[in-house]
What we know:
The longest helix is centred in the middle third of the chain and has 18 residues, at 201-218. 35% of the residues lie in helices and 22% in strands. It has 15 helices and 16 strands. It has 428 residues and is α/β, with parallel strands linked by helices. The two termini are 26 Å apart. It has two domains: 2-80 and 384-425, Urease, subunit C, domain 1 (Roll); 82-376, TIM Barrel (Alpha-Beta Barrel), CATH 3.20.20.140. Fe (iii) ion binds next to loops.
Amino acid sequence: MRKLFHGISKMWGVAAERGRYRCGAEMGEVEAFTSAWMLVEDGRIVGLGGAEGSYGEDVGAMGEDEILERIDLGGVEVLPGLVDSHTHIVFAAPRHEEFEMRLRGESYEAIAAAGGGILNSARKLQVMSEDDLYAAAADRLKVMIAHGTTTVEIKSGYGLTTESELKMLRVVKRLKQDFDILIKATFLGAHGIPMEFKGEPDKYVDLVITDMLPKVVEEGLADHIDVFCDRGFFTVEQTDRILKAAAAMGLPSKIHANELGLTGGVQVAVANVSWSADHLEHCSEVEIDLLRSSLELEYGGTVPVGLPGTSYFLGIPYAPGRALIDAGLPFAMATDFNPGSSPIASLQMVWALGCTQQKLLPAEAFYAVTCNAARALRCEKEVGALAAGQRANFFTTNTVDAIKAIPYFVAQNHCDRVFVNGEEFLLK
Ligand code: NIG
Ligand code: FE
């Protein structure tokens, strides 16, 4: 069944080859077609083109009878579906009380050390049913999709017991079944040290490795492992143990690194061939050089992922996105959508923060939330760009010159219609 989308004034984020992501200076300009069209078969793009030329199958060379359905989009601009490579959308409730404590001057770290923060979220999640968690997470996912996001990574980490971690990951499994967008699951049992293990964190690490991990793997509930490697949370040594145990069971890693300090997170990530090192609010030349040299290694390198929503909401430094791009790295950004440090669903907002706070050009920030974010999940051949062979996941906008206007006219939703595998996603 072939569908031809036309009536596209501008189609942004096109690529000649499937799976291309962008490093450093390659991020400076967005490839686009004007007066564009896209041919879709079985949910995948098979050809696309415009006034500048075409990639893949050419609609001009095609007989009328070869196209079964024509969809006139009415002169809009089209962008690839955005990719959110780091979220925590399965949670019980917002932490309004901590928001107010922070506004009165208390720090995120101090609140966490006193048993709030992640442990507060865990207490609430442990007593909530799987069905209620599913319903709340599905609602959040719909908001994200309505803002143009069509790939989402979702972490556990508010369970902190075997039972509750499995409960969270089963919610993610149901989301995967019920939504046609691409969803990836990450096991983050090592997100916080439960009160019962205070003073003996290695015992909790043992529980993660010997009890939780085998069950998660056996049920096929995770695509990756994650650890909150930072001051007051898990040490480099504990992180290394967990990542090695997970790798032995076939799980690749992506970790929380250097949110609260220069704590060795990047070093342990690169040593464990992690797909990404996320946060990096603290990141010196040493870390930047190490990330750059990792690109030459056999595994292809660790993607630096900035989470500017967290910096905005907590008032902490921003990851040095500008310096990471200038060093030639495939910088990516994600929402970190969670109830404690980044209650932000929209990658359009992250795109804007990347520009105003990290001095990224609009084009650079666009690549950071599309193909480079896909690379952080090693799914750049599936999503993140409009290229033959990739999923027909895209959104339309009536905003003109969208790449520049989206981060400029901030705090509004520029996304009008969302298509997933070539079908319109209708919010119920
Ligand atoms: O990425 N830093 C660790 N985890 C989350 C926040 C978790 C929370 O505060 O609930 C983050 O910021
Ligand atoms: Fe996070």
